[in-house]
Amino acid sequence: MKSVKRIAKHPTISLLNSCTTLKEMKQIHAQLVVKGILNNPHFHGQFVATIALHNTTNLDYANKLLNHNNNPTLFTLNSMIRAYSKSSTPSKSFHFYANILHSNNNNLSPDNYTFTFLVRTCAQLQAHVTGLCVHGAVIKHGFELDPHVQTGLVFMYAELGCLSSCHNVFDGAVEPDLVTQTAMLNACAKCGDIDFARKMFDEMPERDHVTWNAMIAGYAQCGRSREALDVFHLMQMEGVKLNEVSMVLVLSACTHLQVLDHGRWVHAYVERYKVRMTVTLGTALVDMYAKCGNVDRAMQVFWGMKERNVYTWSSAIGGLAMNGFGEESLDLFNDMKREGVQPNGITFISVLKGCSVVGLVEEGRKHFDSMRNVYGIGPQLEHYGLMVDMYGRAGRLKEALNFINSMPMRPHVGAWSALLHACRMYKNKELGEIAQRKIVELEDKNDGAYVLLSNIYADYKNWESVSSLRQTMKAKGVKKLPGCSVIEVDGEVHEFIVGDKSHPRYDEIEMKLEEISKCLRLSGYVANTNPVLFDIEEEEKEDALSKHSEKVAIAFGLISLKGVVPIRVVMNLRICWDCHNVAKMISKIFNREIIVRDRNRFHHFKDGFVKNVQVLWLSFTFWYPPIRGEY
DNA sequence: TTAGGGTTAG
């Protein structure tokens, strides 16, 4: 057997890893040149590889170094393939693969390392055909049984969405080790076969913390967050090491489930056990707090972070916008630019939301145009939808329609829905009918489109059209999504679906609702009963307004959450105007902060005001829509 | 010197 003589890393080269800037690396480079160390091809290779792998921004420098070397070693070229596979230009890896294949040095031919890195490039590029060619080359060069290459191939096919190919590679492995098994488990989860992943997980004779994390990630990524938390609890009970990745995953599940208390527990655990605070973990915390409606805490974590990337900034900007703090979100965007962090398409979704919630149409338009003109980012459907929403909320319905008509791609349901919502807000029947027709053309069973148009007709007391629309819905089998609100009390999630009285404390809730009604009447509140009259579900007509799921959840919050704890409700539809006004008044009468997250954003109510937009609010009669910046 | 798990929107 051929023995490979290992050469230790030169101590000066080892120093490179402690460098934080390229400038420092260049100083070490100068020392190595002076000492003649780089004349040794092994040390030269180590030096180039360390520079290239340290940071992808160093790749140009590593390339220049390589250009001065006519006979790079296989190790050097493999390292360049590896570095480029992780960069923003992964296709450049193939340049070095070609160097290996066409090298003047006859001894150079690709090895198992080459393919381990090259398959990652294919995955990164989503290059299906190239991936198949690389797999062919793997077989041709005799590395199909190498466990590292096999793991890479499983990873590659998973990224390409080819689960059957993952199975083929995995089944070809003689005795797949823990790493390959975990890669396969992850592949099943990523490609939609989470139950098979779980079966594999349960049957594995040995698992380490990465396997556990992969299982949690699998559940979290397919939206089965509750099961993700179950696996996490099992992991804790079995005494498996929890690291920062476990924490990020569990936070992501908490965010989706809107379980702030559990999220807070994770944060406390991170601090108590000094879990390594990576940018990813910090971002997950910011995102969790913001999406659970605790924006103050989110910003506290944000400003406490030592390092922030585009994910962190986008999360915070979006979090502020989602909670109604539009101006603050735009200030933060300016801070981001000042710090030299390059925004991406997702950042602009957050920025446009920020403009939308405070009605800054001109500024929104400026940011939208800057996407392409300044940052070279092509706006996507979501960005167009947000612009329509922005014009619509500001009452500029004609401009919203013109904007839709100027879209370079076919307008989607989101764009037309934004217009339809604005038409409801501003009672514009003609445009509302156009928008509804367009939505139904794209999605014939879109219940929201029917309900909104029906509401517009009802605003005009056009009961004939309301009734005709109801019949169309019945004929087409369009069902209205029932309102559903959830509230977390003592770590337990309580769900209230409109019309459902099965909650064990429903009698008490009803009594509280009656008390609320009395208090509201005494305060001079007159409900806008229009929605009851034109509500299209028969069973919801009677008492519907006072039994909307969000009101029931708030009433339950009042009876079960003692002291000054804010009432946090999450609902599946947009909050109705009456519930919005009632929540505002309850916050004053019962001296309780209320935070409602609807399908669109958060609504904060305190002391009888909508937090952060009191001034705008005071200029309107309290039940009369539209309120710029509130809906 | 190589392989498996993580964050922003929708």
TrEMBL record:
InterPro entries the record matches: DYW_dom, E2_motif, E_motif, PPR_At4g14850-like_plant, PPR_rpt, TPR-like_helical_dom_sf
Matching Pfam families: DYW_deaminase (PF14432), E_motif (PF20431), Eplus_motif (PF20430), PPR (PF01535), PPR_2 (PF13041)
GO molecular function: RNA binding; zinc ion binding
Keywords: Repeat
GO biological process: RNA modification
Membrane spanning residue stretches: none
Stored Gene3D superfamilies: Tetratricopeptide repeat domain
Protein name: DYW domain-containing protein
Domain DYW: 524-609
Sequence similarity: Belongs to the PPR family. PCMP-H subfamily.
Intervals holding PPR repeats: 177-207, 208-242, 309-343
PROSITE patterns for this protein: PPR (PS51375)
